[in-house]
């Protein structure tokens, strides 16, 4: 089974989650950061496509949304899983429906939220200021969940 994990990561949390998923896959797995790809990401030759994005102000990256829209026909013919990295897991359904086409969500074997991490060292001054104001310095509660990732892997049948 050939798996493509296509993701968008602003500060590294989503990239780390994608890498974690790739280590759990028993088949051939390709990682593709949609923001750093120098060539178009082509999903045609893969059996399984995992799409992951970080949520900022309710949105995943524009490039990830465009990838899903422009490859919708191909993606709906594949085994699909979608994950989000976000600080508001209670709003996951809202974020999913706002960022992904309904036909893609309907086709997904599973969707999940892996949590989030605040990585101030990677942030711009502006983003640091916003995060500090919103969280009031309570950074320790923001963590990713390997349990959620392992459950995702199991539901996708990757192991």
Can you give a write-up of this model?
This protein has 159 residues and is an alpha/beta fold. It has a single domain, classed as Flavodoxin domain (Rossmann fold, 3-Layer(aba) Sandwich). The chain has seven helices and five strands, in the order βαββααβααβαα. It has helices spanning 13-24, 62-70, 72-75, 92-99, 102-107, 125-135, 146-156, and strands spanning 2-8, 28-33, 48-54, 79-85, 110-113. A five-stranded parallel sheet has the order 2-1-3-4-5. It is globular and about 45 Å long. It starts with a strand and ends with a helix.
Q: Layout of SSEs?
A:
Layout lengths: L1 E7 L4 H12 L3 E6 L14 E7 L7 H9 L1 H4 L3 E7 L6 H8 L2 H6 L2 E4 L11 H11 L10 H11 L3
Query: In CATH, what is the homologous superfamily?
Result: Flavodoxin domain
Using only CA atoms, what is the Rg? 15 Å
Q: What percent of residues adopt helix (DSSP H or I)?
A: 25-40%
Number of E-type strands: 5
Could you name the CATH class?
Alpha Beta
Categorize the overall geometry. Answer: globular
Spatial order of the strands forming the largest sheet? 2-1-3-4-5
